[in-house]
Amino acid sequence: MREKWTKEQAWAWYNRYPWLRGCNFIGSDCANRQDQWQQYDAENHMATADRELALAERTGFNTIRIIVDFDVWLQEEQGFMDNLERYLTLAAKNGQYVMLVLCAEVQLPRGEYVDFKPKPLGEQHYALGYHQGRAPLTAEQTALPPYHPLESPLLRDKYLKMVTDIVTKYAHDERIIIWNVFNEPGIMLGERAVPMLETLFETVRACDPDQPLTVDVWRGLKDGVPVSAEERTALELSDVVSFHTYRDFVTTCDMIDRLKEHGRPLLCTEWLNRIGGNTIFEMYPLFFLERVACWCWGFVVGKTQTNEPWTGMLDQALEGKHEDLDFTKWLHDLYRPSFYPYDPKELRLIARVNALADRRDAERLSK
Q1: How far apart are CA 69 and CA 66, in angstroms?
Q2: Pairwise CA distance, residues 309 & 331, whole Å
Q3: Using alpha carbons only, what angle is made at residue 122 by residues 121 and 123, rounded to the nearest 5 degrees?
Q4: Please, is 6 exposed, middle or buried when counting C-beta atoms within 10 Å of its C-beta (0-12, 13-18, 19+)?
């Protein structure tokens, strides 16, 4: 089994590439990740992805981050694997490396393990005006405890088979640049995510991939240390250091400064919160100057509606909290459905910074 990379191995990997910059990607015509991965309407979704990945290349991006979906794999295993190959092919065609996320705590099943039913496939419905097209859960739904398939005796082996099959197939594929083993561990399950993290890292490393492994610090730091046990575990296990920031410029500067103490390459795998002051104008030049790889959340606004505020953000504002929030702005996303930019000034800045990065990388990589 492959061991955790040394700092030298991590930097040797990172230094082979230009400055990595891109977005978290889901096609604008996909209502959710079932839509992204299922066979139903796949031809239309792939055509949209091709157009939008071409737009990513024209923007000057060179990488995307995408999250797998267990419910689709469980019901359409071969179809899911076929569509994964198609996404990797389209990404490469349009100049994009892929960071693949293998696990997340999103829309988890609730109730008893034996009552598990995978999310239905076919036409996917979404709620207008809600971030990610999902209306808040009802009181009846929130009364049932959530669980992850990795916690279920009925589903655990199947989930690990999905992970093993994916990583084994692409362990030496240059189109995948990194394995993001777990997105935001503990966001719903707290410290229950710790043994899941350990199992997933063991499973992925047993496949002996060429690419590094990482899990993100996402809540932030206290005195330079991740605030939760699951994030501390993630940092200890990761080959490279990744994090999320939806916070202001100075808080992000402090987070980068603290995480640099670990002596490994830094990757910001989620950012952009215009409503809260996390903007293109400040963050993108900062990531360039610090040579932090970065993936903003969202790209072309669509059915997931991630230009809308988080529901909790709105609820707090209605209670008179966080008066500094600016709800006249989009939360995420760079482009309108027409492919016109949300704010042309943002795209001009991105182009200028990309040109600086390309010049710097041309000099560095030629040595």
Answers
A1: 10
A2: 6
A3: 125
A4: exposed
Distance separating alpha carbons of residues 41 and 122, to the nearest angstrom: 8
Q: Which two tokens stand for residue 11?
A: 């930097």
Query: CB neighbours of 137 closer than 8 A, spacing ≥ 6?
Result: none
Angle at 302 between CA 333 and CA 307, to 5 degrees: 40
Are 66 and 25 in contact by the 8 Å Cβ rule? The answer is: yes
- Residue among 135, 133, 113 nearest 124 (CA): 133
Alpha-carbon gap, residue 152 to 205, rounded angstroms: 22
CA 264 vs CA 103, 124, 241, 249: distances in Å: 23, 41, 6, 22
Q: What is the DSSP string of 90-151?
A: HHHHTT-EEEEE--B-SS--BS-GGG--PPP-SS----TTSGGG-PPPPHHHHTSPB--GGG
Do the beta carbons of residue 283 and residue 271 sit within 8 Å?
A: yes
Per-residue confidence of the chain (367 residues) as pLDDT tens digits?
Answer: 789 999 999 999 999 999 999 999 999 999 999 999 999 999 999 999 999 999 999 999 999 999 999 999 999 999 999 999 999 999 999 999 999 999 999 999 999 998 999 999 999 999 999 999 999 988 888 889 999 999 999 999 999 999 999 999 999 999 999 999 999 999 999 999 999 999 999 999 999 999 999 999 999 999 899 999 999 999 999 999 999 999 999 999 999 999 999 999 999 999 999 999 999 999 999 999 999 999 999 999 999 999 999 998 999 999 999 889 999 999 999 999 999 999 999 999 999 999 999 999 999 988 7
| Nearest Cα residue to 70 out of 42, 34, 123 | 34
**Interstrand relation of 293-297 and 21-24 (parallel, antiparallel or unpaired):** parallel
Report which residue type is found at 62. Answer: N
- Looking at the DSSP assignment, which residues form a beta bridge with residue 22? 63, 295
